[in-house]
Sequence to fold (267 residues):
Amino acid sequence: MTILPSAARQPATAFASTGMASSQAHETALTADLRALHQLGTRSHFTRGETIFGESDDETHAYKIVSGVVRLCKYTLDGRRQIIDFMLPGDFFGFNKRPEYGLAAEAVTDTVLTAYPRKQIERLEATMPGVQKHMNALLSDWLLSMQHHIVVLGCQTAKERIASFMLRLLERTGVQAGERLDLSMGRQDIADHLGLTIETICRALSELKRESVIAIPNVHQIVVNDLDILYELAEGGPRDEDAGYAPARAAAPQRNARGLAGPRLAS
Fold:
């Protein structure tokens, strides 16, 4: 009879416990790595309209938004502006692993940021796998978000773009249908983000209000009354341009918000 070593004779539950312990150890290590990253941060304050960094500035810091809203934008030589995205509280931006930023970052409102020196982030990445994994995940989320926006700009009508924009804000902020959605950005900012004129933005919002899809309590807030109709618009669902939109579905399908929200830095 062969006598198994004591380790080999352990019950299956012992191996499960070992795996659980290993997983817990990994999570502990990851938490420690991210805690080291957060310790690098210093608070910075920017007033409304203030530039945080320019397109060709050296990439010296990455940022996490504590409060306020930031727009990332690109300017052409003749002064035209394309807003690439709006960064909201909890979003992380400014870390592209390139010598220069490539985009300008401007405070839409009075904003508080946590600034992380790039060189120190790179040192942590070299020694702490959890930091490198986390930064790569942020860049991946950013790429997915930009892919979604390309589809919006390339395939959707003005009203569909407005619907997609509002849905994305709802998903990122956690605001529910029937609740007030704050719009810190002005109509011109929204127009420059969606590739439309301010007149088209105002006309599309007025149409949605007239159709009772949304309510507009004031210029800086919107209430979504019919979430299903917004989803139908954003997804190019069935609608009759003359007779109005198709009846609302009984329930909106579950959607994966990954790629629609801005890149987040874990707290």
In short: Confidence is low (pLDDT under 50) at residues 1-23, 239-261. The first strand starts at residue 42 and ends at 46. Helices lie at 12-38, 118-127, 129-155, 158-173, 187-194, 198-210, 227-234.
